[in-house]
């Protein structure tokens, strides 16, 4: 078992910067110039679901285009949640590929990713327990002015 970790630091009200172990950062929050947390979740699902199909296709040929569109209904009632999540993979190959074989290959790879290797999809489907803990510390006004 491997523990993965991401640090999320507040940069302004409603704005955060997520940093992974490699130091790569992404801005998240409220505003038109950043991903919302829900959009980032859908992006993670789309990317995770695309890895296997991309690997299989790229072994044979470089796709002309490869896009995963991920959508969901955002339900805002007593509790906010997503439902009816849909991943639509659109791949364009050059005309030298056998179209039926290529379509089957993409379909199988997407099904394999969805059913076995895409951790994001499998986690969402499992309804994994999420625990939350907090720690609050206080600094006196004099100490914070010195720092």
Automatic annotation (TrEMBL):
Family matches, as Pfam families: OsmC
Domain of life: Bacteria
SUPFAM superfamilies linked to this entry: OsmC-like
Entries under Gene3D superfamilies matching the protein: 3.30.300.20
PANTHER family: PROTEIN YHFA
Name this polypeptide is given: OsmC-like protein
Organism: Brevibacterium ravenspurgense
Lineage of the organism: Bacteria, Bacillati, Actinomycetota, Actinomycetes, Micrococcales
């Amino acid at each position: 078992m491997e523990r993965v970790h991401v640090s999320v630091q507040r940069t302004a009200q409603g704005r955060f910067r997520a940093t992974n172990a490699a130091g790569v950062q992404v801005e998240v929050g409220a505003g038109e110039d950043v991903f919302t947390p829900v959009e980032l979740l859908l992006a993670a699902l789309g990317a995770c679901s695309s890895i296997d199909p991309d690997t299989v296709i790229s072994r044979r040929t470089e796709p002309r285009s490869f896009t995963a569109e991920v959508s969901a209904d955002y339900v805002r009632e007593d509790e906010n949640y997503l439902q009816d999540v849909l991943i639509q993979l659109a791949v364009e190959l050059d005309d030298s590929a056998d179209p039926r074989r290529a379509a089957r290959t993409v379909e199988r790879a997407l099904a394999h990713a969805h059913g076995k290797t895409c951790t994001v999809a499998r986690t969402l489907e499992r309804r994994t327990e999420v625990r939350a803990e907090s720690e609050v510390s206080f600094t006196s006004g004099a100490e914070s002015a010195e720092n």
